[in-house]
Amino acid sequence: MWIALIICGVIVVFILGFGVYTAAVTTHPKKTSMEDAWNNEMSKDYVKKCDMNPSSVYTITTDEGYVLHASFLPAYDYMDEYGRIDEYDYKNPKTHLSDGPKAKDEYRAEGGLDNCNGQRFIIISHGYTYNRHGSMKYATIFRRHGYNCVIYDDRRHGENVKTLTTFGREESKDLMAVIKDTRRRFGKDIALGCHGESMGTGLSITALQYEPDIDFIVADCGYADLENVVKEGMAVKFHLPSFLGSLGGVISRILFGYNYMKIAPIEHMGSGRIPICFAHGGADDFILPVNSQRMNEAYSGYSEYHEFPGAAHGLSIDSDPEGYEKMVLEFLKKVYGA
User: Fold this and answer.
1) What CATH number labels 33-225+263-336?
2) CA distance 160 to 59
3) pLDDT below 50 — which residues of the chain?
4) Model-level pTM greater than 0.70?
5) Which of 53, 61, 82, 156 is least surrounded by CB atoms within 10 angstroms?
6) Domain boundaries, given as residue ranges, for the chain
7) 3-state secondary structure 66-127
8) CA 100 vs CA 118, 167, 184: distances in Å
């Protein structure tokens, strides 16, 4: 009997230890370095042929005082206006920190449209463990078609101070700060949209509950809720019982103040005012395509869903750069009419 109790005790301790480990690693992931992300993106033919040096590197402070690091990649048509960092230190971009970009004084209308002389803007949010250099691949499309791009590091990621990753709970508020900062810099009436990849989509969709002042969202390979992603990963990738994911969430609530298994962007989709273009890789086995399909079906406003056959997680654009660009441009025509 004592042997049985000891064995049961060991099993319980192991399970609890695994839960603590899972909670800690999930909420405090290892970050990809700025250098590794740059090298990874610049190894892609459709990216490396483009000039990806930013015009400026700057910070954005959220309402709670958290500092986000950002870079500004102007549309290629506006490179002369905003300039370029010639010897860009992609390993340590913050060595180039400045006050950041802003609209010319003559663009700031008094009594008319404050829209930066008609320039358009896009804010791009990257995925879990990555950083703003990972957003460059999407910027290649938008910059060619006249969009100035703001890319920034999600909290904890990139050059930001380490803190909890909350999968959209706090990151959605950070995005709201980036939107507010972008309008302050360039004009309250600018055309402005958002693009998200993976967790970048999760935080963008979660931000809809705050009715952000944006015109559209391109939502790539996001999760409808984190519970299905964690349980699927436990069962399929690690061949472990799914209850361990729930245990990790409960322990996360005790140790870090929130249960990541309760994160569900699909429950925070707002009024339906903002058009959304959902995209997903057909071979994504990390966040299954059904997540984007569910959000597309649940959204009360205009949305559309596109699937890229054979594309793994976060690689839809890599699998078909021209097809991805076509999808984006056709969607933007529906948003702006031109």
Assistant:
1) 3.40.50.1820
2) 10
3) none
4) yes
5) 61
6) 1-30+227-261, 33-225+263-336
7) CEEEEEEECCHHHHHHHCCCCCCCCCCHHHHECCCCCCCHHHCCCCCCCCHHHCEEEEEECC
8) 20, 27, 12
The sign one gets for the Cα dihedral 87, 89, 95, 101 is positive
Residue 302 structure tokens? 């205009």
Among left, alpha and beta (phi > 0; psi -120 to 50; other), residue 44 is beta
Q: Which residue has the tokens 């989509």?
A: 201
The H or E element spanning position 289 is: none
Tokens of 9: 């005790």
**Backbone φ and ψ of 281, nearest 5°:** -80, 130
The structure tokens 């299954």 sit at 288
What contacts 158, CB < 8 A, 6 or more positions away? 31, 34, 69, 131, 132, 133
Contact 155, 68 (CB under 8 A): yes
pLDDT digits (tens, 9 = 90+) for 72-115: 999 999 999 999 999 999 999 999 999 999 999 999 887 789 99
- Residue 70: other Cβ atoms inside 10 A: 24
Q: Quick one: 33 exposed, middle or buried, by C-beta within 10 A (0-12, 13-18, 19+)? A: middle
Overall size of the chain counted in residues: 338
Distance CA 198, CA 301 (A): 21
What's the rounded Cα separation, in Å, for the pair 206 and 211? 10
Question: What is the token pair recorded at 219?
Answer: 């939502």
In sequence order, the 6+-apart residues with CB closer than 8 A to the CB of 320 are 308, 311
Strand ranges (E), the chain: 56-61, 67-73, 120-125, 147-152, 191-197, 217-220, 276-281, 303-308
Whether the CB-CB separation of 151 and 135 falls below 8 Å is answered with: yes
Contact between 303 and 296 under an 8 Å Cβ cutoff? The reply is yes
- Round to whole Å and give the CA distance between 207 and 170: 9
Helix axes 2-27, 243-256, angle to 10 degrees: 70
